[in-house]
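Example complex used in Figure S2.
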Amino acid sequence: MTRGCIICAGREGDEALHRVEVWRDGEWRLTLSLDAEVLGFAYLEPLRHIPTIADLDGAEARSFGAAIARVSRSLKAATGTEHVYVYIFGDGVAHLHVHLAPHRDGDALNSQMIRGEIVSEKLPDGFERFYSREFPALPETEQRQVVEKVRRDLNAA
Ligand SMILES: [Zn+2]
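Predicted assembly (157 residues):
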């Protein structure tokens, strides 16, 4: 527990955030918002103070997949939605929290990842590519530099 962390504060923090805990195991807990624009908006968080997704390790890293799949199935069933959107931002509260948002067509959720006016382009293979008029793709050479850095890092012996 980290002092001053609203997520480590548990139920007390939940009251301030207007949400209720519905499940926990030895590593994770799930709370549901009582103040959301869609039904079943939820937060999956490790009990241990893990600041960001990049810090995820140990038992929580091993159990993350099973936990997120289980709670997502439950949210889908409870809300009757076909999709659960998942967001991790990490630049707000410094305790890892996964936002889970059951989504149906026409609800309050934005289905775009990029800001600005979204334009779609049909690709020859039938897929649709979306891009933002205000934020065009960055130069491919810059993107390839990052590709190489990540490739080298992940494949280093
Ligand atoms: Zn914390």
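The chain is about 30% helix and 25% strand. The CA atoms of residues 142 and 148 lie 10 Å apart.
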